[in-house]
Write a structure and sequence with these properties.
With about 160 residues, this protein is of the alpha+beta class. The protein has five helices and four strands; from the N terminus they run H-H-H-H-H-E-E-E-E. It starts with a helix and ends in a 14-residue tail after the last strand.
Length: about 160
């Protein structure tokens, strides 16, 4: 009953963001499960990579970035399946770019002590990093970036996290 009460306490704007995040998480999860990543990458590069969609807005984009991050997290918590960082990052990238906010989806790998590889995906904006790390470690500097999709902030050493 608590989830319904929380949902009804959201503003109309927050409900729309949450609904959009749920739909995009479903579509991105199905895509990740059914398609090779090269097809997903190709789609994202064609539709969401160019800087033509980015609009330099004068309103408070920090509020929209925060709302996208919160909506993706809320949707992932409400949906009955586990969502991976790649699905969440794809969802966040699309939601941000639809609003004209500059964003970059990054995927990378790092080597673990047992010589295995750990893959991770995150989104970088001008205002920080959206990271849904399963181990709670939001330091992405350990990852070697393999794929960069989108136009936006440079890959500098600042690691502020949007939570």
């Amino acid at each position: 009953m608590g989830k319904f009460r929380k949902f009804w306490s959201l503003t109309g704007h927050e409900k729309l963001f949450l609904f959009e995040a749920c739909i995009l998480l479903l579509l991105s999860k199905l895509s990740v499960k059914a398609l090779a990543f090269r097809h997903i990458e190709s789609y994202l590069r064609v539709h969401w990579n160019d800087d033509g969609r980015v609009v330099h807005r004068h309103d408070d984009i920090k509020k929209d970035i925060k709302l996208v991050s919160v909506s993706v997290s809320r949707a992932a918590n409400v949906l009955p399946w586990k969502t991976l960082c790649l699905s969440r990052s794809i969802t966040a990238l699309i939601m941000l770019r639809r609003r004209g906010i500059s964003a970059v989806l990054l995927t990378g790998v790092r080597s673990l002590e047992d010589s295995s590889l750990h893959a991770h995906a995150w989104v970088r904006t001008d205002n920080g990093v959206m990271d849904w790390s399963s181990d709670g470690n939001s330091d992405n500097s350990e990852f070697t970036v393999l794929v960069r999709i989108g136009q936006g902030p440079s890959l500098d050493s600042s690691r502020s996290v949007v939570s």
